[in-house]
Amino acid sequence: MRSAAIYEAIVPSNIAFIKYWGKKQQELQWPANDSISMTLDSLHSKTRCRFLPTAPDHAVTLNGSYLTRDSGPGAKIYSHLDFLARELNCQDKLEVSSSNSFPTGCGIASSASGLGALTLASIATWFDCSTIDDFRTKDISYDRLIDYARMGSGSACRSLTGGFVQWIKGDHPDHQKVVQLYDQEHWRLNDTVVLFSQKEKAVGSTEAHRLAWSSPLFAPRLAYLPERIQQVKDAIAKQSIKTLGPILEQEALEMHSVIMSANQPVFYINQAASEFLAWLIQRRKEENLSVYFTIDAGPNIHLIYESAQQSRVLELIESYETITDTLTDTVGSGPQLRKFKESSE
Ligand code: DP6
Fold it and tell me: Which of 72, 213, 223, 297 has the most CB atoms lying inside 10 A of its own CB?
């Protein structure tokens, strides 16, 4: 008799300072380069799982809507569940309900938090783990969970660790590692996301990763990146926003240049976002404010700055004439897991 308990994983999103862009090996999710990110605190995915006795297949909802195996996010979620079931030899079908505390699929790394939360919640259900420490008692190391999350979505492997995190690609797909550079107490940075679109993007990042190799800018980028990675690590070590900021901006614009110069160009940054960036560059100079941008695979702009500057930064954004929605978050400590009886919620 299977337990009727519910297992809930909350996994935060993360914002990449050095982007994971392009894969060296698709099947094993081996990235073309190392990446560095900051794990967020309140922007997260919450995934609940329980056994579905006798059901022929898993049943998955995302933000309240049922997903099928062939739909966009459904395809990624079901295929990850199939992968985990094969790897861990778990036949039981699951009911999975997931929700994001932010808009899905528009450049706020919903696949990082979503696939991370799916990994933890499904394995917790199959192995009856009530806390993160329980995985170890079931012979599932945290590094193995990170590997599993990475197979669901590359950026998800960084979301399983709090603070400032580096995904090291290593010299072989099996030698990849995720390391915490510093925990969340090291440096209070904020990420304010300025939303220019809440629609799901037309071309998903998995598809766009494949096109990276066709850009003439990609090989020079890969050659130069080790130097930039070292600069970012030094800036984080010294807590120097004035060093980190310009590197973040160059890195984000370079990733988008690769995306736009591929043989099937993709335009994630829209006109409203570009106009905002031009305005920001001018206004921050006038205000002498250390606020810098980065952009993931979507039109929304992430503003990175020291948390002590939050009220000045929010005031500045509010003065922008086109009204925009914003989400403000800070560095977080990583995932949470809990188990509860169905009747308790
Ligand atoms: C632009 O992790 O979504 O957010 O591994 O194919 O699922 P898959 O790709 P995904 O790529 C995210 C890329 C990025 C940059 C980053 O987070 O490093």
Answer: 297
Strands (E), 52-91: 59-62, 65-67
What are the strands of the beta sheet with 301-306, ordered from one edge? 292-295, 301-306, 189-195, 325-330
Query: What do you get for the CA distance between the two ends of the chain, in Å?
Result: 22
Q: Does some domain include residue 342?
A: no
Mark which of 186, 211, 245 sits at the end of a domain: 186
Domain that holds residue 238: 189-330
Closest to 317 in 3D by CA, of 338, 344, 345, 291: 291
132, 153, 186 - which closes a domain? 186
Tell me: do 179 and 284 sit in the same domain: no
For residues 155 and 150, what is the distance between their CA atoms, to the nearest angstrom? 7
Q: For residue 167, what is the domain's CATH number?
A: 3.30.230.10
Instruction: Name the band, by pLDDT with cuts 50, 70 and 90, for residue 344.
Output: very low
Verify that 277 and 303 share a domain, yes or no. Answer: yes
Same domain, 267 and 301: yes
Q: 10-26, pLDDT tens digit by residue? A: 999 999 999 999 999 99
Question: Using an 8 Å Cβ cutoff, are 317 and 324 in contact?
Answer: yes
* Strand, coil or helix: 132: helix
Whole-model pTM: value is 0.95
Domain count, the chain: 2
Measured in angstroms, how far is the CA atom of residue 264 from the centroid of ligand 1?
Answer: 18
Pocket of ligand 1 (CB under 6 A): 16, 19-20, 29, 35, 109, 111-112, 153-155, 205-206, 209, 296-297
d(CA 165, CA 176): 13
Ligand 1 center to 137 CA (angstroms): 31
The torsion defined by the Cα of 275, 13, 243 and 294, in degrees rounded to 10, comes to -20
Q: Of how many residues is the chain composed?
A: 345
Ligand 1 atom having least distance to the Cα of 209? 6
- Which numbered atom of ligand 1 lies nearest the CA of 19? 18
What's the chain's average pLDDT? 94
User: In terms of domains, do 113 and 208 share one?
Assistant: no
